[in-house]
Amino acid sequence: MYANLEQQLETIERNSIGWKSLTFYDRSLLQQLSTCLQSCLAITPEDSFLNLVMNQRTQVFDMFECISTHLFKQWNHHKRSLVNEQMNYLTLVGKFNRRIALTLQNDNDDPYSNEDDDEQKNSNLEQQKRVRELLFDNNNDLFVLLVDMLPRISEHDFDFIDMILPWYESYIFFEHSYIDSTLDDKFLSFNQQIIQCLKSNEYERSLLIFEHDQTLITTVRHRFYLGICTMAMGVHVNCDDNECDDAKNLLESYLSRYITFIHHLLQDDQINSLNNLICITGIISYLVNYTLIIENDTNRQFLIDLFVLVLNEKFYGSIFANWSTYETILMDSVICYLIIYCYDDRLLVAEMIRTDKNYVKKLEHLIDQAQNAGNRRIAIMTQLFLLILTSCTKNYDLAEKFFLLCLTYIQMSLDNTQSYHYNRIPMSLFFKSILHIMKYEPIQEIIAQHYLNLFTDILINYEKKCLHENIIYRECAMIACTILWSLSFNENIRKQLKHCDKDFFDVLQAINTNTNESTVKQATCGLLYNLNRLVFDRNSSTANDNFGKTIGISYDSSDQATVVMIEQELNKSGYRVWTNYDHMDDQFVPTFVSLMTSTQYLIVCLSDMYRMNNRCRTELLYATASGHHVLSWKVQIPTNDPEENERVRVRAVETLLKRITSIGTTSQQGAELGEVAIHMEKHSTPTNFNRRRRTKQIMNVENWTNAEVLAWCEPLNMPGFSKLFARFDGQSVLKLYEFCKQNSTETVAVLNNDLHNICKQENEVDIQISVHEFIRFQIEVEKLITPSIMRGSALSLSSWKSSLPKKRLKIRTCSIL
User: Fold this and answer.
1) pTM of this structure
2) What kind and span of H or E run contains 422?
3) Of 230, 259, 336, the residue nearest 291 (C-alpha)
4) Which residue in 129, 235, 450, 739 has the fewest CB atoms around it within 10 Å?
């Protein structure tokens, strides 16, 4: 085939000068040229195709474009239809240009960082220059003609529109990969015409195709408006730093219709035609490149629809190494979009993974498919997405695998100092993907042993190398603050961080002082507080603003409805309440400490989101360590029985009020602090002690032997309690739990005194129970309590008939035994 193609190219090159001067091209000549174009399009792989265009018989390809310009001008001047041979020739040249632009984009896959890459970089610049000459410089009249025609496309028949679409696609894809500013004016004029198309009545009618008649079929006209024009707008917004003012308004005005259109195609599984596929690809490309913030429930359903799309083998089975298929473009766009909107929304992720229990297997299949096709970008982004999903499921084996891969990608991105990308994926996307997985102990153990310096160095180099103006690195540095805050709750890591160089703390203080971003301010404030480096005035005016409010509520924002209900119920009983969102500013630690000075009780709304919220964890640690009365409210997941939900709510409120009243009474009498009322759901007994390592069935806690107590405690990283449990059985653990529920500093002191005596008797180094370990013990016991132990109560541990005496127990080692 290549020998035959070489002969064809040689013949055309020999006659090119004469053919260029012709004023009429007969059918036989156009057929001959079309045959040669088809042979060129059949060349694989992509680098061979690009080499052909760049380095072999360049006059031939110049002539292809020249003849196309002539045919379009003749058509425009005489206003008559093109004959079949002319249409076929122009279609093939359009596809040829489209492939050049896509191949060039794929070849420009990785940005450059090292001087060794200069030769390759120069080669790519030469290739871009050559393609620019073919598509724009040598045929500017044709570009102007096609751009001017855009708003009037609907006037033409379907065959003509089908022919001209690849020409517009070549301009779109070339803008996506172009790294020079020479063509900025041309792309701007192209986009201005695209905007006119998006504002047209024809565009709006295309979006409404399924609104009145869901049996209608999309046509090539829909493909032009919804696919090509929408994608062109998205690419331009992505490439132009000074994005047009109309971009946001257009997207917001059409957003609900975009969602309805895509939802209909997905629900009825209608993405089986090229027109439908290109329409949905264009719309999603626009959404991804503009990254409009999605908040309402309708838009959340849209994200779930996209998740279902990603799991559909119909799409990922057609992935190629580059954007040569619309399935590839679609999967690339959707996965990127899902990462952007899922990485910090655990509720959305939980909702997604409930839609398909086989999502892990399907995404792993997608990764394999992308790797086999040579598409590293899709493979890596799918790994990141799966890492985000596993951070909500505690699949530690899978999480550890992809977490270590992600750290490798971060290190490779750091080596690319010119752009901080890896495989055209910005380093910030890698940081976002590991944000929440950092809160799990198996991952923290890996970090503590090998990778903590990676994150501290990110901050140190941010200042040392003056990277404040680098948008990607700056975003990574800010995310690193949040990651280190999460890690600082781990005692081992906290000790390591406290011994960091002065440069590290100087950068933290500088960021905390200078940033205007709320999340960054909170992260640096919380991290400095955990490391005992936060200096603040405990006498704040905030306390005066809350004079007389003796009850506070600490909660995650996702549980705000529950908090409003609790506040209203307490107000009815005459209690004045403040919530941590009433007066919290970005420097939340000083504000919270000030509020707590006049607070008698802190109600903690426990939920999965609360336990993952660093700010909430900091507040709970402070309240417990400072000796405040802490009352826990377990946020219930509503059932399908409204009456039962109301009964549970009423009983929980009654229990909470009783605890507040009883604590207030005993406090006035000088008695000791009572139990913490924890509203509990019924939990099934766990089937293993050590996550994935053990399978031994757990009996009721009260029936445990000492061996079973030690087996349960061993993997939980509670060294102090492990030492205390040397002779404990299950009943002793429960009694100790009741004792610890007093949540006072004296309780911790009593335990540490016993622990000190044990270490002294055994001639071992003295260890102490931290506040974090103290709370951890209570949480882990709560997970194990069965309905039988609770004696039928699904509401509150305070309803137990505790066998403990009312006076404070002065326990010694195993004295409860």
Assistant:
1) 0.73
2) strand 421-422
3) 336
4) 450
Which of 377-386, 766-775, 780-789 is most confident? 377-386
C-alpha to C-alpha distances, 267 to 273, 309, 331, nearest whole angstrom: 15, 10, 18
Which CATH superfamily is 552-668 part of?
Toll/interleukin-1 receptor homology (TIR) domain (3.40.50.10140)
Measuring CA to CA, how many Å separate 611 from each of 6, 342, 411, 515, 739? 68, 19, 30, 26, 23
> Using CA atoms, how far apart are residues 797 and 791, in angstroms rounded to an integer?
10
Instruction: Determine the average pLDDT of the residues in 229-258.
Output: 78
Q: Which single residue is written with the structure tokens 């042993």?
A: 449
Alpha helices in 640-729 (DSSP H): 642-668, 706-713, 719-724
pLDDT of 546 over the 70 cut: no
CA angle, residues 658, 659, 660, in degrees to nearest 5? 90
Per-residue tokens: 610: 């609360």
Report pLDDT digits (tens) over 595-644. Answer: 888 788 889 888 888 888 888 888 888 887 777 888 888 887 788 888 88
CA-closest candidate to residue 465, choices 453, 477, 454 = 477
| Tokens, residue 356 | 């398909």
Contact 318, 327 (CB under 8 A): yes
> Which residues face 606 on adjacent strands?
634
Q: Where is 283: in which H helix or E strand?
A: helix 274-290
User: Could you tell me if 104 and 128 are in contact, meaning their C-beta atoms sit under 8 angstroms apart?
Assistant: yes
Q: What distance in Å separates the CA atoms of residue 545 and residue 552, rounded to the nearest whole number? A: 13
Q: Computed from CA positions of residues 529, 535, 541, 544, in that sequence, does the dihedral angle turn out positive or negative?
A: positive
When the pLDDT of each residue in the chain is averaged and rounded to a whole number, the result is 80
**What is the pLDDT, as a whole number, of residue 59?**
85
Which tops the pLDDT comparison, 154 or 111? 154
What are 689's two structure tokens?
């002690």
Total residue count of the chain as it appears in this document? 817
| Domain ranges, ordered by start, for the chain | 1-139, 183-292, 440-530, 552-668, 701-799
The answer to whether 348 touches 293, Cβ cutoff 8 Å, is no
